[in-house]
TrEMBL record:
The name this protein goes by in its record: Beta-alanine--pyruvate transaminase
Organism: Asticcacaulis benevestitus DSM 16100 = ATCC BAA-896
Stated family: Belongs to the class-III pyridoxal-phosphate-dependent aminotransferase family.
Named cofactor requirement(s): pyridoxal 5'-phosphate
One of the GO biological process terms: biotin biosynthetic process
Keyword Zinc-finger (UniProt): no
Keyword Transferase applies: yes
InterPro entries noted in UniProt: Aminotrans_3 (IPR005814), Aminotrans_3_PPA_site (IPR049704), PyrdxlP-dep_Trfase (IPR015424), PyrdxlP-dep_Trfase_major (IPR015421), PyrdxlP-dep_Trfase_small (IPR015422)
């Protein structure tokens, strides 16, 4: 649960690194698996061939993936997973004879990494504005932040499911025959912990079904127990057609990402190919043996310690603790789900640094690491967190807020 600074201080990790060290740091089992693998097989190509640990790993991963999402493509990051998912969606539409279905729909305030596909469907102006015209044929649904009546909502907010209906507006403008896929983070993390309104994701699924559009869930943050279920798709009981992963897949010990899709998509791609290759796409390090070893050991740790269930069990305590900051100074909204928390502060226009950044510095000095984006504090501790550590994070933030001008 801790980092040690260069001067020897212990800092409690309130963010699981970058939403990724779900089982906590320095897990011996994972370290040993990587060491052993490095001594056994350091590298082998995964183009047109394979090696045993990539199959062992993907088989185990398929075992915990929800619904029929059992065909897996391995990448090295969340960004690669997002671009891979978009390419699978486009290739699938073409393979099934719907070559005009090429438009991609993202969402405002969405984050899907830093590849060209990801920034194009993503909704963060600073990640987009310096990089030319990006992908063409992309539209964005509105974000779900700030809907009236939702401030300080616990778990899923009440209002705003109808924001999904904006897909109808995009369909009316372009026609469903031109739209390949919608991609969303089930819970938007990087832009400030935006919890979907009750029923929103189900409505999006229904509209995608109605218009024959693929639904992609970017589960780079929400995967591997963050919400107290293996994946957000399970938590919300909504089946995406394609699901992206990274971060917690190896407990962040070795870089890795993955994309899962249904048999239907896989079989369609394969049937349309005039070669035994289902998709002309791949990375040198796809299925890297060290990443697979780390991933296998990570999934074993998650299972043996029942960490997804543990996150669910402690999420009520987490919710109450985070919401106890409602009357702290400068707080204008609090959001939570599973082991995620977002605390939004009143902006401080004209100040050299945001209030949240000042809170970050003060918390770090007091031995607690949080994360901030603009005026929002984001929390996502390792799933092994104890109640006393939750109290410490919350009380440290309270103190820091009190001290902040
Ligand atoms: N998608 C989501 C939802 C993410 O949160 C992130 C990283 N924060 C990414 C994609 C990109 O992952 P990476 O930084 O590993 O490329």
């Amino acid at each position: 649960m801790y980092y040690t600074t260069q001067d020897g201080r212990q800092v409690l990790d309130g963010t699981a690194g970058l939403w990724c060290v779900n089982a906590g740091h320095g897990r011996e089992r994972i370290v040993e698996a990587i060491q052993q693998q490095a001594a056994t097989l350091d590298y082998a190509p995964s183009f047109n061939m394979g090696h045993p640990i990539s199959f062992a790993f993907t088989q185990k991963l398929a075992g915990i993936l929800p619904f029929d999402l059992k065909k897996i493509f391995l990448t090295n990051s969340g960004s690669e997973s997002a671009d891979t998912a978009l390419k699978i969606a486009l290739a699938y539409q073409r393979a099934r004879g719907h070559a005009t279905k090429t438009r991609l729909i993202g969402r405002e305030r969405g984050y899907h990494g830093t590849g060209f596909g990801g920034i194009s469907v993503g909704g963060i102006v600073r990640n987009r504005m310096n990089f030319g015209s990006l992908l063409t044929g992309v539209d964005h649904l509105p974000h779900t932040h700030g809907v009236a009546g939702n401030a300080f909502a616990k778990d899923e907010p009440e209002f705003g499911a109808d924001l999904a209906d904006n897909l109808e507006r995009i369909v009316a403008l372009h026609d469903a025959s031109t739209i390949a896929a919608v991609i969303v983070e089930p819970v938007a993390g990087s832009t400030g912990v935006l919890i979907p309104p009750k029923g929103y994701l189900k409505r999006l699924r229904a509209l995608c079904d109605k218009h024959d559009i693929l639904l992609i869930f970017d589960e780079v943050i929400t995967g591997f127990g963050r919400l107290g279920a293996g994946f957000a798709a399970e938590y919300f009981d909504v089946r995406p057609d394609i699901l992206t992963m990274a971060k917690g897949i190896t407990n962040a010990a070795v870089p890795m990402g993955a994309v899962a899709c249904s048999n239907r998509i896989y079989d369609t791609l394969l049937a349309a190919s005039d070669t035994p290759i289902e998709l002309f796409h791949g990375y040198t390090y796809s299925g890297h043996p060290l990443a697979c070893a780390a991933g296998l050991a990570t999934l074993e740790v998650y299972a043996e310690e029942h960490l997804f269930q543990r996150a669910a069990d402690i999420s009520g305590y987490w919710r109450d603790a985070v919401h106890s900051l409602a009357d702290a100074k400068h707080v204008i909204d609090i959001r939570n789900l599973g082991l995620i928390g977002g605390i939004e502060l009143e902006p401080r226009p004209g100040a050299a640094t945001s209030r949240a950044l000042e809170v970050f510095d003060r918390c770090f000095d007091k031995g607690v690491m949080i994360r901030v984006t603009a005026d929002i504090i984001a929390l996502s501790p390792p799933l092994i967190i104890e109640t006393a550590e939750i109290d410490r994070i919350v009380e440290t933030i309270r103190e820091a807020l009190t001290e902040t001008a």
